[in-house]
Amino acid sequence: MSFETLGLAPALLRALAEQGYADPTPIQAAAIPPALEGRDLLAGAQTGTGKTAAFSLPLLHRLYTGERKPATPKTPRALVLTPTRELAAQVHDSVRAYGKHLSVRATTIFGGVGMQPQVEALRRGVEILVATPGRLLDHIQQRSVNLSHIEVLILDEADRMLDMGFLPSIKRILGHLPKQNRVTWLFSATFAPEIKALAGEFMREPVEIQIAKPNSVAATVTHRVHPVDAARKRDLLLHLLRNDARQTLVFGRTKHGADKLARTLEQAGLAAAAIHGNKSQNQRTRALKDFKSGKVGVLVATDIAARGLDIDQLPMVINYDLPMVAEDYVHRIGRTGRAGAEGLAISLVSHEEDGLLRDIRRLLKQDIAVEEVAGFEPSRPLRVDDSARSRPQQNQRPPQRHARRPHVGNNSGNGAHPGARNRKPQRGGGQRNSRPA
To answer: pTM, whole model, 2 decimals?
Structure first.
């Protein structure tokens, strides 16, 4: 199957062809046809499989190939809600990239920055509005946005918005949208029963699509646990990073801990930055930009980044702390092993966390190899199945699946599928069959 067979407008096919994309991913092939038919969608697929293009392409086709509505030229016709600022910005970038030949009028609004530039953009007129729930409600209260002509509502990472407590805000926003002549598309990696119950309140006979089983992870990701005493986690992390110069995303549990860990890595001579909810939007944007460009080799993040970062070909994720909720492990690990690439997920686990590890293994329905690193053996063993344990290895380090590179100048963040940021053209014929993400 190719994009030509899906019935997309020539202008969209042209934009995709110019970027070297010909074949849709499974979620795109399954979701685009019913979306073009005007059906409501409840679409689930693993992170990194192309959900953004799966809704952006039919959205652009619907808005820019049908009859325009000159009576309300400045009023948004489509609303995309996302849980984080980073994801809102990335969805906006994707919409603009795919719609480059359609004169797309789109903007994004989120917190952490001033409202006035957003008010002015809305006043000039937009057709596609990408927003986080909190800041959108601010604009609704100030009457700087009119949502009465929305034709398409998209909730991206719907389960994450539920996890983050956005359900009351979403219900308030729904009260400002037209109930008739509107299609609704929900996209996410997983759909908990609460999400389906919510969907039942405002969707009409949605087409349900589930590309992979819930809470599954990409088969190309290798999982590994290194048991270690909590007091020695920092030393073990430094040991791993010094022996593997690949671009790495490190997850911590708290904002303060992420900042402290990033400072420790910098003091040890590693190019590192932290990203979390207490950072200003400018700080978060700069940290992500530096990480994608390779200026920063290690990005320390809290779970806010598990859904808000779109980084192509990220080779390694390290869980410095295990998440308190097992499902968050899936979303963290979804940053690596994207679009068929190999990835490595390492978790540093103290005996205090062995219960969290058991929850993760039950969720994944698979064993995770437990390997002690020579010199960092824990004083108390993890309570796990002995069949998953291997003997210590001297000078153990993650396997070198990619060529080692210095942190500075690492371009691992550049990718070859729609949705990638800071993309640079790749040479050779391999891009022709790449798929949008």
So the answer is: 0.64
